[in-house]
Known about the structure:
367 residues
Amino acid sequence: xxxxxxxxxxxxxxxxxxxxxxxxxxxxxxxxxxxxxxxxxxxxxxxxxxxxxxxxxxxxxxxxxxxxxxxxxxxxxxxxxxxxxxxxxxxxxxxxxxxxxxxxxxxxxxxxxxxxxxxxxxxxxxxxxxxxxxxxxxxxxxxxxxxxxxxxxxxxxxxxxxxxxxxxxxxxxxxxxxxxxxxxxxxxxxxxxxxxxxxxxxxxxxxxxxxxxxxxxxxxxxxxxxxxxxxxxxxxxxxxxxxxxxxxxxxxxxxxxxxxxxxxxxxxxxxxxxxxxxxxxxxxxxxxxxxxxxxxxxxxxxxxxxxxxxxxxxxxxxxxxxxxxxxxxxxxxxxxxxxxxxxxxxxxxxxxxxxxxxxxxxxxxxx
Length: 367
Ligand code: NAD
């Protein structure tokens, strides 16, 4: 394996600085000329168990962008699993490439070998740009993959379970912000018509909500509209400023940033996308000051990881959904803690996760 970047020195020092800052245990780079695989795996924390987190395929503009993403995402997984009560640590992988045209069997088999080289410290699954087809190819080279198809004994695509968890968390946020979790007639803007967004739209419409949906790909929008004719389509640049009750980011991260914050008209933010706050501290605080209730992404999008955790135990869909439903009560408790301590919701969630990790570490029970 060799370092993939042209600016090796700059990236190396960036890696070490960021690892120190965020507490990562291990970061690995892979460059395989034969298959065109360029990827990074980050293992953030394995106190609670092996680092489980999906693989994202995205055409990152630079390798530094890919690195930043994987470091943030892997840390988020540590907090997500800790809050969800899972015996798993946090890790993530990113593959630099266009998921629409760059995928080959050989690439994902090579990636599988790379995952295998971590001897079970990292377990992969689907994330943006991935499907069960890639998981099957990865499985040819390693046991350390979940999200396999049901006919292979797997749990299938975790997205519908993620969407269910987001829906439960969104309802808990509505209960806290509006005094009722009844979504009938609430206006909800969903950004991203992908695997999670599509499933979430169906649940929201069934509850009687008015749902506005956007995506950068027309074909994705058309597919959701065909499945759910009640959904109202909007342009990608319109979604942030829509006059809605709830904004649900289900595309990529950092959509809450210096540019978008002043334009937000919603009372609640509750969506699936990882790392929604461009700057957790600054934007988390700003949302609180603006009176917008933010449901931390890693708190309410844990359905997928819960589903994956059940695949390792022996898959049981009912049990996975029941555990995912627990996100409703966990979210209510975090919102309560945030209010009582007058701290942003992201911080209340971080503190709860850190408390669990610390207590396991201090008791000498680390993985
Ligand atoms: P996906 O790739 O199926 O869908 C993402 C969609 O967002 C795509 O249709 C894409 O075209 C669209 N998109 C990208 N940029 C956009 C923009 N600027 N404006 C509007 N649309 C845009 O991914 P997914 O599996 O649905 O996941 C969505 C988000 O939820 C991701 O951030 C992912 O990390 C997160 N998440 C997913 C799961 C899961 O189980 N799939 C679990 C936890 C978190």
